[in-house]
Structures are given as C-alpha cells and as structure tokens.
Write a structure and sequence with these properties.
The protein is α+β, with helices and mostly antiparallel strands. The protein contains 4 helices and 5 strands.
C-alpha cells in the first residue's frame, strides 16, 4: 500500500472525540440555545444515528451526570437523568431483559415522561376525594 492510500484512512485511537460525537454535541448546543431563546424543546434519538463502537459511551461520558435522576416503571423500566448540562436530559428505556430499547437526549426544562398526565391527575383527585369521604376522622 502506498503512503497516499494510507492517508485516506482516519483511525482514531484513545479517548479523542470521534466524527459522530462532535456533531451531536453541536446539535445539543444549538438545541439548548433554542430552548433558552424560544422555549422550544428538542429530542435527539440516539438509536437513529449511526454510531461506531465506543461513540455512545464517549458521548455519555462527555455529557456526564447532573443532580436529578429518576427511575420509572411504566410499560417497562426507564431511567431519566439530567446531564451535567442543565436542560440536557438522557432518557433510556429498557425491555424486560434490561436491554436498552430506546435512548434519547432531550433538551427541555423537564422531559414529558416525568410530567403528570391529565388523566392520571383526574383519577388521583377522584381517589383522594373518595378516601376523604370514607375517612371517619
């Protein structure tokens, strides 16, 4: 192989950011700006982006973990945490075997999955009213 042919390949070793991680981080930056400027939320579906081995881990390591972490059990387990960048959330859904079936980066004030649904709140109000009516104290 000639020296010219070898120079066409860009093999990155070590912990350097790869070609797909950097554009995702820029998209997160633009989405965070949109959130601040116009209160417009954004979602990045990490399963729809081709990532080479190790790229997702590099991205998650770069985003880090913030102060808020929630676990849900609704139609299967889900884990939600705010990254070290406020307003940037990682939402991961698992199947019954604990395999990742969906992973999203949400740039929002609060992910929709954490917000109480109107129907659930209405049912909770009815339940609380019934319990208060039946409470002898």
């Amino acid at each position: 192989m000639t020296e010219h042919a070898e120079s066409r390949f860009n093999i990155q070793l070590g912990n350097a950011l790869t070609w797909n991680v950097q554009p995702i981080l820029h998209e997160i930056r633009h989405a965070l700006r949109r959130l601040l400027d116009s209160d417009q939320s954004s979602i990045i579906d990490l399963r729809s982006i081709p990532l080479a081995p190790g790229e997702e881990e590099t991205l998650l390591d770069t985003l880090g973990c913030g102060e808020v972490h929630a676990k849900l059990s609704a139609l299967g387990p889900s884990e939600i945490y705010e990254t070290r960048f406020a307003g940037v959330w990682l939402v991961t859904h698992y199947n019954a075997e604990n395999n990742v079936i969906g992973r999203f980066i949400e740039i929002t004030r609060l992910p929709d999955i954490l917000q109480s649904q109107t129907e659930d709140m209405a049912a909770a109000l009815e339940q609380l009213q019934r319990e208060l009516e039946n409470d002898p104290g």
